[in-house]
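Same chain as my last thread, 234 residues:
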Amino acid sequence: MRGIKFIAVGVGPGDPDLITIKALKAIERADLVLSPVAAVGRTSIAESVIRAHLDVQTIPIVFPMTRDEKARDCVLREQLEVLRPRWEKAESTVLSVIGDSSLYATAAYFYAAWKELAPSIELELIPGVSAHSLVGARTKRFVALGEEIFSVIPGTADVEAIGAALKSCSAAALYKPSALGELLRPVVESAGPWAEVLRVDRAGLPDERIVKGPPALSSPDEYLSTLLLRKYAL
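reply #2:
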């Protein structure tokens, strides 16, 4: 079996104009292109970004929305086994992911599961524009300056850990704030005061929504949501 190369490609946060030239070149050259979906039959934002530029065949890979690591990895390995005849013959296989390929990327779990089946697999990461960068641009805000401490925090983390991280920074991007539910407002407010609070749902997509001030701390229903916070006004 030839050497296997796995390329995790960040395609940006969803706006097709923000995918990099390097990402497009890697996808165009790949023998096998995979796109993550939350469930069978669901659409992939990453795939829609690719199709805005290239006419390539993509294969969906289901990433179960669960915190059960064993169950998730089992599903990934099963899909890899089904695709084994394809990836064993491929010189390069691409998995497209929204945002950046090295930050909270599903590609990491896929790579770990694949490495169990092919220990010699080679990994390459191609960076992409992160959601908080687009949110800053869309709201015309500088995310952090000078000696300010900027934190990127997942809303899926432990609530006390989120609060501690918010208290220790000058500015923050809170990913997936919907995971906190009704705790979002008290957790954020207790770590303040904040000079700026804003949230962007589905940044860069046609149905993008920008919410500023106190309403931004209302529990959002949208999974693709990012909250930007600053303790010092510019």
